[in-house]
Amino acid sequence: MFSVSIGRGVARLPLSANETRSLLQAATQQKTVDSSLEKPQFPGASAEFVDHLEFIQPNVISGIPVYRVMDRQGKIIDPSQDPQVHPSQDDVGRISFYMTNYGEEGTHIGSAAALEPTDLVFGQYREAGVLMYRGFPLDLFMAQCYANADDLGKGRQMPVHYGSKDLNFVTISSPLATQIPQAAGAAYAIKRENMNRVVICYFGEGAASEGDAHAGFNFSATLECPLIFFCRNNGYAISTPTNEQYRGDGIAARGPGYGMLSIRVDGNDVFAVYNATKEARRRAVAENQPFLIEAMTYRIGHHSTSDDSSAYRSVDEVNYWDKQDHPISRLRHYMTARGWWSEDDERSWRKQSRKTVMEAFERAERRLKPNVELLFTDVYDELTPGLSRQRESLARHMQQYKEHYPLDLYEK
Amino acid sequence: MAAAARFFIRGANSKLSVSGIGPGAHSSLGAALLKLSPNCSSRLKAQRRHAAHFTFHPDPVPTQYGPTQKMNLFQSITNALDNTLASDPTAVIFGEDVAFGGVFRCTVGLRDKYGKDRVFNTPLCEQGIVGFGIGAAAAGATAIAEIQFADYIYPAFDQIVNEAAKYRYRSGNLYDCGNLTIRSPWGCVGHGSLYHSQSPEAFFAHCPGIKIVIPRGPVQAKGLLLACIADRNPCIFFEPKILYRAAVEQVPVESYTIPLSQAEILKEGSDVTLVAWGTQVHVLREVASMAQEKLGVSCEVIDLKTILPWDNETVCKSVVKTGRLLISHEAPVTGGFAAEISSTVQEECFLNLEAPISRVCGYDTPFPHIFEPFYIPDKWKCFDAIKRMINY
């Protein structure tokens, strides 16, 4: 489905910082009208007149190359692009690749590793790896999924709606793309603080169809926000394939339309993702402008545990990505070639991971649910008189009809 | 927007759990656990799922519309859409993921039967879906738009409230989009949490120019949906998603309509009038039996069916007879549609009232995940309200 660029594959950002700035300025500055010049004076565009009728072809931006560092076998193609990472055993142990978001782990870990811990993350809902990289404990992941008394979100949201104030990860919301304009606002506020921070905003190619995505792109460009838009283009929005989602060259092609620097990377290449995010971060902070990274990948898993994707795509297609082009396999090839990893390591790591996860499952499952009074808090900063009455009314009701409510499963 | 997270989208093979309300893990997580670790399973099962908060009460088999077939609610919707596509060559059906049958399977088989120019996916954009539908309707097509969850209808709020609802009025009836019907899954489902549980009808009830309809089961769903499609005004048709598989009835296979803006008395009674729509009708039916058995109180149960414009005549007549009114919905009580009914009945039936009108509704909070069993206006809360009205 995706065009994969071979060859050198190193997508150079086309312009230097200064060149970009002056071009952007030229395009956005209010011009003084000079009618003696045979040039268009329209304030909305900077261009020349032409005297032949021609529509711009829709493919004028197409075939945006896919930047990669490793080939599918995990070999570094151009040594100058090798990020020279040397994962310690600890680092590896902290990151479980095997839990969720199957097939998209490269985009999570590669981008998370390129950021500073203080950078603010606005996720969609398929970025558990980013939070994991920042050190969110497995038990808290489980607590959220089980909505137990340890859940930082107090049991109010469905599974995978993680959030962490300490780790600068804004709590996930189910509605799609709502985080995109919010990320622009947050980046604007952060720019004014001048604390060398950026905002990163994750979303899928489906969410990019929402009106909110347009608003977020346009706001961040016009208001010069230090923001990295990280699009995970995984081929499907539930059942809807990309050719029913858009007809341009993916999401990266939209960047120039908004006056935004853009790059497409191989999302299954954790180093390509890392390099692109690192450079985007550096420049976003230095130049106060948004960057768009489109990471091409494939959603190997179903949309959710309630979805059966065989109803809309072939098993062969899924198998190709699972067996032939998987981000973890590629990294494993790379590590194995350097003697950092072996079949034995893999086996014992899988075994240990599974054990750790199962134990966390069991702990989370045994834990009580949050106190029922938390139903009413946090609607406002303080309990309103009306909510207070409703809370008391529920308490009286439960007292009278307690045999009909599962109160013993909840904290007192 | 977002059709967002759509976490519990039901794929082709999965079953919608009706038993709802699980203090255990999210059901599918639970399933994964069972597979991996047999020694956890017994505890999980024990923890899992209290009984459903309602008992579905099927309608009698309709005799006036010809042969019937056993259908659940999503199949009756599919069947209604099938009838429409067959009889109306201008009809088109679109939305997110509708081409493969929709996440709740309401459009299964229709693309293959009628072609992909008539049943198609749109890009992921609710404001786009409704705006596109308005345009198609204004240009003469029968437009049937699906919003994947009612919780995700808000990006289309502007298109519905400022555009669809005002198209006819602002043009002096030169243009209208009466051929537009918006379908959307609605209401609680046991584990839907903030964004897969909402009942947003009251937001739209504040908007003259549209009609809002909510069925209680498969027979009603088909007849009311076909009435919405035939109606010359834009309609929003909310489908109680917890009933998609749980509600099974004998549904006529031919096309038929059930009139809009007509409430239905499901059970006659003399002491208290109970009004609801959608899933909550079944809760109140059970409450009526409980009140009869335990209190000797006779309840009249009314399914409002159309929220806007609503049938105040049927409701007021009933209250004149009983002198007491209880209205129940899952949406938060403040500003909910019960407030509108209550206000009208107070104006029309003031001297007939024997007790204050009672609203048993959701609390004024977002719809909470793990607290759903405490949040919903269940039968015990409704039963208790009846007791208080009788003893007033």
Blueprint of the fold:
The complex is a heterodimer of chains A (412) and B (392).
Chain A: H1 17-28, H2 89-94, H3 105-114, E1 120-122, H4 128-133, H5 138-146, E2 169-170, H6 179-193, E3 199-204, H7 211-222, E4 227-233, E5 236-237, E6 240-241, H8 254-257, E7 261-266, H9 270-287, E8 291-296, H10 315-324, H11 327-337, H12 343-366, H13 385-400
Parallel strand pairs in A: 1-2, 1-3, 3-4, 4-8, 7-8
Antiparallel strand pairs in A: 5-6
Helix pairs in contact in A: 3-9, 5-12, 6-7
Chain B: H1 27-36, H2 41-47, E1 68-72, H3 73-87, E2 92-95, H4 110-114, E3 119-121, H5 126-138, E4 143-146, H6 157-163, H7 167-170, E5 180-186, H8 201-205, E6 211-213, H9 218-230, E7 235-240, H10 243-246, E8 248-252, E9 264-267, E10 272-276, H11 280-295, E11 299-303, E12 306-308, H12 312-322, E13 325-332, H13 337-349, E14 358-362, H14 372-375, H15 379-390
Parallel strand pairs in B: 2-3, 2-4, 4-5, 5-7, 6-7, 10-11, 10-13, 13-14
Antiparallel strand pairs in B: 1-8, 6-12, 9-11
How is this structure best described in words?
Chain B: This is 2-oxoisovalerate dehydrogenase subunit beta, mitochondrial. Chain B: It is an enzyme of class 1 (oxidoreductase). Chain B: It catalyses: N(6)-[(R)-lipoyl]-L-lysyl-[protein] + 3-methyl-2-oxobutanoate + H(+) = N(6)-[(R)-S(8)-2-methylpropanoyldihydrolipoyl]-L-lysyl-[protein] + CO2. The complex is a heterodimer of chains A (412) and B (392). By secondary structure, chain A is an alpha/beta fold. Chain A folds into 2 domains: 64-304 and 319-360, Rossmann fold, CATH 3.40.50.970; 372-409, no CATH class. Helices cover 37% and strands 8% of the residues of chain A. Chain A has 13 helices and 8 strands. Chain A has helices spanning 17-28, 89-94, 105-114, 128-133, 138-146, 179-193, 211-222, 254-257, 270-287, 315-324, 327-337, 343-366, 385-400; strands at 120-122, 169-170, 199-204, 227-233, 236-237, 240-241, 261-266, 291-296. Chain A has a 6-stranded parallel sheet with strand order 2-1-3-4-8-7, with helices on both faces. In chain A, helix 7 (211-222) links the parallel strand 3 (199-204) and strand 4. In chain A, helix 3 packs parallel to helix 9 (270-287), helix 5 (138-146) packs across helix 12 (343-366) and helix 6 packs parallel to helix 7. Residues 1-15 and 89-99 of chain A have low confidence and may be disordered. Chain B has 392 residues and is an alpha/beta fold. Chain B has 2 domains: 68-252, Thiamin diphosphate (ThDP)-binding fold, Pyr/PP domains (Rossmann fold, 3-Layer(aba) Sandwich); 264-390, 3-Layer(aba) Sandwich (Rossmann fold), CATH 3.40.50. Chain B is built from 15 helices and 14 strands. In chain B, strands 3-2-4-5-7-6-12 form a 7-stranded mixed sheet, sandwiched between helices. In chain B, strands 9-11-10-13-14 form a 5-stranded mixed sheet, with helices on both faces. Chain B is globular. Chain B has helices spanning 27-36, 41-47, 73-87, 110-114, 126-138, 157-163, 167-170, 201-205, 218-230, 243-246, 280-295, 312-322, 337-349, 372-375, 379-390, and strands at 68-72, 92-95, 119-121, 143-146, 180-186, 211-213, 235-240, 248-252, 264-267, 272-276, 299-303, 306-308, 325-332, 358-362.
